[in-house]
Amino acid sequence: MKKATIIFNPVAGKGKTRELTKYLENKLLQEFDSVEIQATEKPRDAILFATEACINGVHSVFALGGDGTVNEVVQGIMDASCEKKPILGAIPGGTFNGVSRIMEFSQNPKAAINNIDFNKTEFIDIGRSNKETFNMIYSIGDVPESLHNTPVEEKSAFSVFAYAFNIARDAVKNSHYHMSINVNGENIEGDYSHVVIMLSTALSKLTLINKGIEKNDGYLHLFILKESSLFEKIGILPDLIGGNIFENEMIKYFKTKEILIESNEEIINTDLDGDKASPLPSKITIIPKAIEIYSLDNK
How far is the first Cα of the chain from the last one, in angstroms, to the nearest whole number? Predict the structure, then answer.
């Protein structure tokens, strides 16, 4: 019996995910013998549901929501002890769904559902920071802090505008953090304003960095922004937009498989795909081709 599970966040997408869940269920019943639907009520619910699905031999798990929902589902799948991990389906339904963008799905939820190809999958890399997983980005700095400070109600009501407002407000803080970063056998110690580790820069068809980085290449891509003034940070933007940050002297870049970040300062929070994660120290590793995921029907 071929079973599927839908895990959705009823708060995401301005509360419209419950309606979308029914639409997705009807689509899945054309492919699966049974479909179980589970709604999250609190943090870590999706982790538990995904783990249970894996243990119970569910063929496919579909995450309907934003990055937070998808991240928890991936965490649950990765943590579960099961012989065959379920195939992941990432359906946009929140403020932002990076995995579905990487897979080049439409960000219109119904269009994305219609374009799932159940006969076409690929494997994606997954990052791990200590015991937590991430699908795209690990970061430290004022910008991720601004994401943490965006209330759920604002995320639902104003979507990306809520994020933009908080990013603009917090960018003027110009905070710096004293950190020790061990990468490729080199220990780098100093004051840095942002640390970003990316698994992939291919968000749909938009590429911010135009050379040397490909989707699911099995590497961590580390960018360290040196201590700088707000005006110096603003000066980086043209190189970022133009895809030339490798040439910018304010940024150090490393391609690696493992990174250790520590600090003797007060608690320094980290961010995984827009959600607050455990504070430093962090041991970050890459798990190549860790999750099988449904692809786009290009017909």
Answer: 28
